[in-house]
Every structure is written in C-alpha cells, then in structure tokens.
Amino acid sequence: MVEFNLLPEVKLQYLRAKKQEHLVLSISIFAGAVSLAIFIFLLVFTGVIQRSTINNLSSQINQSTATLSSNKNLNKILTVQNQLKTLPSLEAQTPVVSRLFNYISQITPPNATISTLSVNFTTDNISVSGGADSLATVNTYIDTLKYATYNNQTNNTKNNQAFNSIDLSSFGYSSASSGASPAQYSITFNFSPTLFSSTDKVTLVIPNEITTRSIINQPKLFKAEPTLTSKKTG
Fold first, then answer.
1. Of 183, 167, 180, 173, nearest to 128 (Cα)?
2. Nearest to residue 113, comparing CAs of 105, 125, 122?
3. Phi, psi (degrees; rounded to nearest 5) at 122
4. Would you tell me which of 41, 133, 165, 231 could form a disulfide with 111, CB atoms 3.0–4.6 Å apart?
5. Nearest 5 degrees, angle CA 130-CA 136-CA 141?
6. pTM value?
7. ∠ CA(95), CA(100), CA(104), 5° rounding?
C-alpha cells in the first residue's frame, strides 16, 4: 500500500505554529489570572484588613494615652522608676563597711589599742589613734601598714598594695604613765578602694614577720567605747 502526503510542508509548519500559539495563549491567560488574584488579595489586605488593624491599634494607643494622662501621679511614678533603675549601679558602688573591723584587727599589733577610728570612703582615708605599750609597737604598726597587701580573687591578682600615704601625724611617750599604754599615737593612711568593693572578693595579707593577730587569742583591741565615724558623700 502506498501513501501520499497531500499536505505541503508549509501547511504542516502552519499547524505547528497554531498549536504553539494556543499553548502560549493559555499559559498567558493562566499567569494573568493568578497575577490578578494576587493583586486583588493585596488590595483587599492593604485597603481593608491592614487599615482596620491600624485603626484598632491607634484606638488602643489613644485609650492608653488618655488613661496615663489622667493619672495625676504619672510624673512621680516615672521619677521613681528612673531612680529604681539606678539602684543596681549605686549598690555596686557602695563600700562593704563590714570588712573594716576585720582589716583593723589584722593590721593592729597585739600590744596596741584604738581609742578613735575615722573612715572617709570619699577620700579613701583612715585616721586611727590610740595607745601602745611602747614606741616600738607603734613602729610595728607603721611597718604593718607599709607591707600589707591583698589578693583579689575576682580578677586573680596578688600582692596588691593595700595602704599608702601612711603618716604618723603625732606620737608621744610618758614613762610616768600608770596605764598599760604609755605610748600614744595618731596615724592617717589611704586604702585601696578595692578592699571595700562589693564587686570584688579580696583577702588582706599581713606578713608574719611583722605582726599578725591570728596567733593571738581574741586580744582586746578597742578600749571601752571607741568612736567610729564614716563619711560617704554623693
């Protein structure tokens, strides 16, 4: 059986082109419909839903603003809140005064007593006066302050100078004194602020060859009623 192709080649190309045209047209119509649907959704969302949400939020804001404005103590409340925020930093700057008596008991020689003690945490200064059994004990007191150091466990540092600017402002000795402390002294010195820092864990170190109260069985350091004054400004 013999078959003859009666359609010329041009006719075949035309039919193929028509099929491609229909395919492209169908895809274009579908893409246009999807784009139109997305456009309509965005138009509805931005024009209706989003605007309604914004209006609701604006209404809530206005209502909350009106409620706050009607509070006569609003300024006081805000002031208190701002002050509360500063409490952590202020607490960190507050010296740990409770460490003072431990330090004093460590640096004071066994045969010395204290009658007055004044501490100024603004200038980091301590003034102490009292009596001792001899001027040699007073000299030991001075040397103890000079060579005292501290270890800071917070930043892992050791042998930090604890005291400086040590001044024996006055001293005297009376052999005719009937008391147990014929030598009188007054010492002023500065201390490292780290010793009383609430953010640092420190240990005062006193050289054993100078003096130490750890080998003394609870010696009587103070006289009857020592006076302690502490100054802190700001």
1. 167
2. 105
3. -85, -45
4. 133
5. 55
6. 0.54
7. 155
- The Cα 234–Cα 225 span in angstroms is 29
Over its length of 234 residues, how does the chain's per-residue pLDDT go in tens digits?
555 555 566 677 777 777 888 888 888 888 888 888 888 888 777 777 777 788 788 888 888 777 777 777 767 766 766 666 665 665 556 788 889 989 999 999 989 999 999 999 889 999 999 999 888 999 999 999 999 999 999 889 999 999 999 999 888 887 765 567 889 999 999 999 999 988 889 999 998 755 444 344 444 455 544 555 555 544
* Sole residue written with tokens 């004194």: 177
CB 188 within 8 A of CB 82: no
- φ, ψ (nearest 5 deg) of residue 148: -70, 135
Residue 169's H or E segment, with its range, is strand 163-173
